[in-house]
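FIELD: query
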Amino acid sequence: MGKEEFYCEYCGHKFPNVRLLVSGSCPRHPDGSNKGRHKLYEGSEKTKYTCKYCGK
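FIELD: result
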């Protein structure tokens, strides 16, 4: 079993635990850069992701 990782829904940054994720400000927060905290991504982990903004 691998090490569990947690991702921000807004920016995709990876964190080793939820406490660290939600304690930091997010550069891609919907209210503006660093105007809110990271949000826990609650979906499944995938091998490949597509950016909903640019398509990459």
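FIELD: remark
The radius of gyration is 12 Å.
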